[in-house]
Amino acid sequence: MQQEYVDRAAIVDVAVAYATALDTRDWKLLGRVFSEDASWAYSGSGEQLRGREAIVDRLSSGGERYDATHHLNGNHVVAVHGDEAEHTCYFQAQHIRRGLPGGENLLVGGRYDDRLRRTPDGWQLTHRVVTKVWSEGNPAVSAS
Predict the structure, then answer these.
(1) Residue 118, exposed/middle/buried by CB under 10 A (0-12, 13-18, 19+)?
(2) Structural domain harbouring 18
(3) Cα Rg of the chain (Å, integer)
(4) Which of 7, 64, 67, 140 has the highest CB neighbour number within 10 Å of its CB?
């Protein structure tokens, strides 16, 4: 039972590391969050990425357009099955681009649905689906 609690905490730490990597632009940390064969999808957009390198390239290039971001996670639900696990949590993500007509802020709320695997480097995401539930502010903040 004690190992389950250790695993659950480590899995929540992976979700926090993802948010921290995005907000601090630490793309090496972001790479450590994902397994080499990971996939990432933005639900409803049709955007799907395969492989750690493609995921980091896409998220880093998208993240560089913002003057700042601030990701918060909560309501973590973790189920551990040996060396594999599922994780779900809510997120709120503030995105800021200064000087835009129509407003500088876009706040997005949603959910992360994850699958993870225990590796020699610790728990890593093998699959993440990002589902936007709501947004508020200027959508142009996220435009390319």
Answers:
(1) middle
(2) 2-142
(3) 15
(4) 7
